[in-house]
Amino acid sequence: MAHLLAANAVLILHLLFICLVMLGGLAVPRYPRFAFVHVPTAIWGVLVEAFGWYCPLTDLENALLRRAGEEGYGGGFVERYLLAMIYPDGLTRETQMLLAGMVVLVNVAVYGWVLKKRAKHKQTRK
Predict the structure, then answer these.
(1) pLDDT (tens digit, 9 = 90+) per residue, 3-38?
(2) Residue 95: which of 117, 68, 111, 76 has the closest Cα?
(3) Which keywords are on file for this protein (predicted)?
């Protein structure tokens, strides 16, 4: 039972990590130092998707599921939980590249906005 609870906790952590990758930049205007946490996280997310790597959280979740007497799952977290809802046929390489591009696009837009806002703020302070 403890292993199943731990696997579910890792699942929730994994989902929160993905939300951080995609949306963490939105916290930067209010908390600029948060960029030191978010930028490496976003880079990791892009690399995982762009190169088809498995996140270590997927391996940890599978190991905990097996210890709980459950079967682990094939593929990565995105394929298993997120894309299974959106794309029932599964994850393709093209879809992974699209997801990586979305992460880059969202974060470039957010950080571009933040930098523009900071530059405007500095000009008004002079």
Answers:
(1) 888 888 888 888 889 889 988 988 988 898 999 999
(2) 76
(3) Membrane, Transmembrane, Transmembrane helix
